[in-house]
Amino acid sequence: MHDTNGFGSFNEAGQLIEVEFEGKKGLYSHIMLLDNLPSIAAGREIWGFPKKYAHPTLTVDSNTLLGTVKYNSVDVAFGTMGYKYQELDKDAIKKALEKTPNFLLKTIPHVNGRDVSICQLVKYHVKDVTVKGAWTGPVNLQVFNHVQAALHHLPVLEIVKGFHFIADVTLGFGEVVFDYLK
């Protein structure tokens, strides 16, 4: 993320899972790995994002987009994709980003060290979306076992599709759609 208000520039990678809540498809944030402590703190404290400090990178190597994630000094993910291989409809990407609900589980432990004080399913949307470019193409992804960055708990069985896009978005505040403690 470049030029974010109040947080500076940072890199972020995440694992999203397609889910259904009340008959509507959405995306669940399973884990997010990034290299910016203020963004980790705000994301976890305000929304409840499952953020951890790591070192994601995204670079272009000739005709290939390269994505890597390191947790400390250990590789936990490596992906490649054809760079700007086939253009996608930017309006369709914008519509999907704005309409698709996103979910996360906000949990805050109790000060007694045993109980949970907050356990909520939170829904949020992105807004003010401007898609500058979107592409699809051949893709490959490898995830590696790591106890602290458990991407491997959802192994890659089949790659259905791959795409990347460049966009400006605003992260909207969330709403609690289910409180597990009430």
TrEMBL record:
Pfam families the record matches: ADC
Highest taxon of source: Bacteria
GO terms for MF: lyase activity
InterPro entries associated with the record: Acetoacetate_decarboxylase (IPR010451), ADC_dom_sf (IPR023375)
NCBIfam families (alphabetical): PRK02265.1
Record-given protein name: Acetoacetate decarboxylase
Species name: Francisella tularensis subsp. holarctica (strain LVS)
